[in-house]
From TrEMBL:
The lineage of its organism: Bacteria, Pseudomonadati, Bacteroidota, Cytophagia, Cytophagales. Transmembrane segments: none annotated. Signal peptide: none annotated. This is NYN domain-containing protein. Residues 7-171 form the NYN domain.
């Protein structure tokens, strides 16, 4: 059984799953571990938050850290948000919107750091951004790590797909991961 680490871009899973509804992180973890053929060595959840003192967000992130059977037992790394100016092509008006700050760098760093430390044989990545291509290429070609992706079709960069040893399309597992009665299994924006 290969040592497997699961890295999650929390915003990616939340936004990509929106068309299907809310999902349950415990059910998702269990489904992916079954596909993996055994338990994950570690799980890292990375995301940005608007306000780190928001009670509902804190409850969700604390729940993610909780061990089974209460929670999915993930290492949670939270980053701040930055304002990005967006100019409307039609009217020329500029508006600001919050965007993640540091999450992609954190994920890329973990991909390389954990591979260099031989913490995994298989990386399961739940992110869709093609910006991870160089990190994935390095750990696959130089460190000979196996790369799996778990995401939603239409929301995973073809650049990442080209390196994947396996792609798990989560919508095909929706009947087993969709939201049940877990009150804190989804993140509130």
């Amino acid at each position: 059984m290969p040592k497997t680490i699961w890295l999650i871009d929390g915003a990616y899973l939340l936004k990509s799953s929106a068309a299907h509804g809310k999902f349950d992180y415990i059910k998702l973890k269990n489904e992916l571990e079954e596909i993996n053929g055994g338990e994950f060595k570690e799980i890292y959840y990375l995301n940005s938050v608007k306000d780190s003192s928001a009670a509902q967000q804190n409850a969700f992130h604390n729940w993610l850290k909780s061990a089974p059977p209460t929670g999915p037992k993930m290492r949670v790394k939270l980053y701040g948000l930055k304002e990005m100016s967006v100019r409307c092509g039609e009217c020329g008006q500029t508006t600001a919107r919050p965007v993640q700050k540091g999450v992609d760098v954190g994920i890329a760093t973990l991909i390389i750091k954990l591979a260099s430390q031989n913490q995994y044989d298989r990386l399961l990545l739940s992110a869709g951004d093609g910006d991870f291509e160089d990190a994935i290429d390095y750990v696959k070609s130089e460190l000979h790590k196996e790369i799996w992706l778990a995401g939603f079709s239409g929301n995973v960069s073809p650049d990442l797909q080209s390196y994947a040893d396996k792609v798990i399309w989560l919508e095909k597992h929706w009947d087993r991961i969709g939201m049940g009665n877990s009150p804190v299994a989804d993140e509130t924006e």
